Amino acid sequence: MLSTLSRGFFSSSVADSGLVLSHLNLLRPDTNSCKCLHRSCPLTPQYSRWTSSKSRLVLAKAAASGKEEKRQKQEDEEVENGLFEAQVESLLETIKWDEKGLVVAIAQHIDTGAILMQGFANREAVCRTLTSCKATFYSRSRSSLWTKGETSSNFITVSDIFMDCDRDSLIYLGKPDGPTCHTGAETCYFTAASDFLKTPQVETTRLPMTSLYCLEDTISQRKLDIVGGHSGKPSWTKRLLEDQKLLCSKIREEASELCHTLEDNEDKSRTASEMADVLYHAMVLLAVKNVRMEQVLEVLRARFGQSGIEEKNSRKNNG
Prior knowledge:
Elements lengths: L3 H12 L2 H10 L15 H52 L8 E7 L5 E7 L1 H10 L3 E4 L4 E4 L8 E8 L5 E8 L16 H6 L12 H18 L7 H7 L1 H20 L4 H21 L4 H10 L5 H10 L2
Parallel strand pairs: 1-6
Antiparallel strand pairs: 1-2, 3-4, 5-6
Helix pairs in contact: 1-3, 6-7, 6-9, 7-8, 8-9
């Protein structure tokens, strides 16, 4: 069977030669006029011999062309790999390694912004992170490289590496496949100094969160109160969680008011306030649907570099 490359070569060869097409048409038995289209038909052996010879010639040319393309592709890859290695080496030369040849490497969640963990990296660890896209560190206790997730399968897929202004620490910006900490926590940072100062005798666990995720956590807590039957103090969030009709009407209302800030040329503070209302009510809806904000940000990140028009058309085509 012809490969895709061979089929393409064969088609172009035939298309480029009117003589070939005319020969094929002249020698091809006509099923309408020839009533003896079987082994004894005098036209059949002649046509078969000619096409067989021509096919072998075309296949031979296609094979030679395929080998040449493969060789050229290998050469291009070697040149590209050589350039990349040279660029990596140039990058590594700009980093300020300590006296042991190490630098601090911090892993950060690309969607939530959470600081996942801190480790150390040497030249080889950074180089491997760049080539494998898996967060790789240098273990000072074992004196060897280790890739986060090599035992737990909770890898951190690195999208980019950032260097600080002094070039003596790095950020591995990536997406974790699961909990980062060996304790099972999402990050290795879950002890707040403020909690310890208040109650040093009680060990508390609280993940560091930005404003957006603090809000999501509060909404989730209200939802748990409802499920657990804890009434507590009156809560607008609980009302929204329990009344989907009210929730949807508020989202539409707040979205309309946000648009009015543009249409009526209201000041920026008013726009920010209305956007905060839209965001809050939309996040309550996400909680009802069991969708995390992280999932929303992941979808947005996947659309980076894609035309909004193309993205909308793809959604229509996919039903």
